[in-house]
Hints:
- One of its GO terms (molecular function) is fatty-acyl-CoA binding.
- By secondary structure, the chain is mainly alpha-helical.
- Helices cover 67% and strands 0% of the residues.
- It has a single domain (4-78), classed as Up-down Bundle (Acyl-CoA Binding Protein), CATH 1.20.80.
Amino acid sequence: MADFNAILEKTKAFSKKPPTEVFLEFYGLYKQFQEGDINIEKPADAEGAAKYDAWLSRKGLSVEDAKAAYVVLYEKYNPIYG
C-alpha cells in the first residue's frame, strides 16, 4: 500500500472540490479508520445526518480494510479532482 499519510494529505489538497456524495464516501472511511464503529446519536441537521449515514455505512470495517478502501477511492477520484 502506498504511504497512507501521503494519500490523506493529497486527498485534502485536491485541486477541485469533489461533490458532496464523493466527500461523504471519503468521510465515512476516514471516521471508520480513525474512530471505529459509529458511536454517536444521529444529528438532526441534514449535513450532520449525511455524515452520520456515511460513517454508519462503514460499520464493521477493520482499520486496515477502511484504509485500503480509502486508497482505492483516492485512486479512483484523484484523476478527476487531484
